[in-house]
Specification:
hydrolase; alpha+beta; Deoxyribonuclease I, Chain A; Endo/exonuclease/phosphatase
Amino acid sequence: MLLRRPPPITPEPGPNAKKIVSWNLLRRTGAAVDCLVTLIEQERPDLLLMQEATKEIAALKDRVGGVYAWAQLPGRIHGLAMWSPIPWAKPPEIVTLPPGVLIDRVCQVLDWGEFGVANVHLSHGQVLNRRQLRRIESHLPVRAAVLGDYNIVGPALLPGFRDVGPRRPTHAMVDVLPLRLDRCLVRGLVCHERMVLPRGLSDHHPIVVRLSPAPEGVASVGRLRGMAEAVGRLRRANVRGARARRDRPGSDGSAASPR
């Protein structure tokens, strides 16, 4: 009989829990400032992360106040943006990522006091976007969250981080194939709430998470556990590859192919 591990007990969110919303706006033809004002009024986030934000989105600050920061992608009309109702101690850091074939990428990293937050819009290449995640990780504190449009299919394979975002699809490729591209990975944090919001005018759904710092000692334990899980996935992939090679006609250990 298989024994199932009981689900972990998530503590109730305390006063330090922060509500974060992340949304790929779909540049120019998607969600505009009016949509963002409505979203802020409905959700009351402590931090709003945006991808594919154009320079016009800066008008959000005039409409709802708060503090706003924009990081334009090199040579593009759009980029990453952050908004908060409360000023930050210092503006987000802009981190240059390994470039893609067509688009050079950057990341915004905010030092939010008790933990760091990275706002990402990664490349489509499934090896490149994971390399970009590792570059981002090197700029993060022990407690950190990485949110945004990952453009990743399958596990992110970022050692030490857990995927705590919503499990529902957030984007439909050519309105047919549902994909969970918008994610939240954390290290040293507890997720108390996660949800997917209506898509609105964009081609992506906003995602919502409520995070707070994990108790002392959990951050390092979670990092070791995440590394062990990543190593286990790689070992299983190597075993499957070895079996496929062994079963291939003409390979060692199998019947020789007819001549």
